[in-house]
Amino acid sequence: MFTFVSGNLALDFAGTVMGRSTRFEDVLSTPAALADWIVAAGLLDSPPTGDADTLARAVRLREAAYRMALATARGTAFDDGDRGTVNEFAEGVPPSISLRADGTVVRSGDADAALAAVARSAIELLGSRALVKECGRPVCTRLYVDTSRGGSRRWCDMTLCGNRAKSAAFRARHGGP
Asked: How open is the CA angle 133-134-137, to the nearest 5 degrees?
């Protein structure tokens, strides 16, 4: 259900909206979906409780982080309001982490703690001068960190978008459907 291919937690969070320019499919449409994403992302071991207000705050952070990462990818300045939003969320207490005697890691906290971790991830990324790119597949709006040699990566994920783009190009060259 959730995809983690962007190379950064905040970008994967922003990627919970698919097709921003075409169909805008939001996979975080309920508080329960947000809680499931938090667990799938490895932020907490158990789904946190949340309500419509929790979801609205999460969407506010997600969209601010997305716009800031998009500005980075396009070489434009951050919006001060978006920067303030991300900084505000980053001030929260992140999830607690501890090590059990058997070597397993326990992650606990609430939804706000998980959102603080996402905001901190955004700040670390955007302050690092990492190469953030937009997926080269026209219908995909996912952003990702390009860590390829020479910065030549074109797609968010080879299996998600790369193969589809290459297949479409092959069909176009060879007259296929």
From this structure: 135
**Inter-residue contact 53 to 115 (CB < 8 Å):** no
The pLDDT of 126-140, averaged and rounded, is 84
SS3 at position 19: coil
At position 113, the amino acid (one-letter code) is: A
- With 0.90 as the threshold, say if the pTM is over it: no
Classify residue 76 as left (phi > 0), alpha (psi -120 to 50) or beta. Answer: beta
**Do the Cβ atoms of 64 and 49 come closer than 8 Å?**
no
Domain ranges of the chain: 9-130
> Both tokens of residue 62?
């997600």
Token code pair at residue 8: 């950064």
